Amino acid sequence: MDARTYFLMLHEEAHWTGKARRVFEIPTPDQWRAVLPGHNSIAWCVWHIAYGEDWAIATLRGDQPLMQRDGWAGRLGFAWPTFGIQMTAEQAAQVGETIDLDVLRAYYRAVYEETRRFVQGFDFDALDVHRPGLSEHALDLMGGDAFLRTFLASWTTPGHYLNIMTLMDVYYHFDEADHMMRLLIPERRFT
Fold it and tell me: Residue 144: its pLDDT value, please?
C-alpha cells in the first residue's frame, strides 16, 4: 500500500467510523449544542475539526480556506478568525448556541472532500521536506499574533499539517465529542 492510499484510509476512518460515526448518528440537535462545565459542545468539536482541517489544507494549497473562499462563515451563522485557538469558554459556547447545525454538517463534508481532492495530487515523498514560507502563510490565514507565531514556528513541513490537523486532531476532538455524548446520554450503552 502506498502512502496516499494509506493516508486516505486513515482519513476516512477518522472522519466517518467509530466515534465520529456515533457523534453524527446519535446525539440530538439539543445535545450537539449542550455545554457542560469544563467541556466543549459537540458542535464546537465538529466546527473545530472542520475549520482546523480546512486551514491546514488551505495552508498547503497556498490559498484561502473554504470558510472564507466559499462563504461558509456567513452560512454557518458563526465566524471566528481561527479554528478556536485562544477562545474563552464563553466564546466556545457561542459556537453551539448560534451555529446552523445542518450547514455545519455540510461544511464538515465539504472540507473532508476538499482534503481528499487535494491529497490526490499531493507528493507524499515531500511530506517531511521543509517548505519555506509555509508557516508564514499559515499565520497569515489566522492573523498571526505572538501566541500563534510561537505555536506554529516549527510547522515547516507538509507533514505537520496533514498528520496533525487532518488525522490526530480529528481523532482527539471526536474523542472529546464522544465523551460529551456519553455524559449527556448516560443511560445509553455504546459499543
Answer: 67
Query: For residues 61-70, b (16+ Cβ closer than 10 Å) or e, as one string?
Result: eeeebbbeee
First-to-last C-alpha distance (Å) of the chain = 30
- Do the beta carbons of residue 35 and residue 93 sit within 8 Å? yes
Supply the pTM of this predicted model: 0.95
Q: What is the pLDDT of residue 191?
A: 66
**From the first residue on, what is the mean pLDDT of each consecutive set of 10 residues in the chain (191 residues)?**
96 96 96 96 97 96 96 91 86 94 98 98 95 86 78 87 95 96 88 66
List the chain domain ranges. Answer: 3-184
Q: Region of 65 please: left (phi>0), alpha (psi -120 to 50) or beta.
A: beta
* 90, 31 contact by CB (below 8 A): no
Annotation: CATH topology of 3-184: Four Helix Bundle (Hemerythrin (Met), subunit A) (1.20.120)
Reference 51, options 94, 108, 92; nearest CA is: 108
Buried b (16+ CB within 10 A) or exposed e, 22-43: bbbeebeeebbbbbeeebbbbb
Q: For residues 65 and 55, what is the distance between their CA atoms, to the nearest angstrom? A: 5
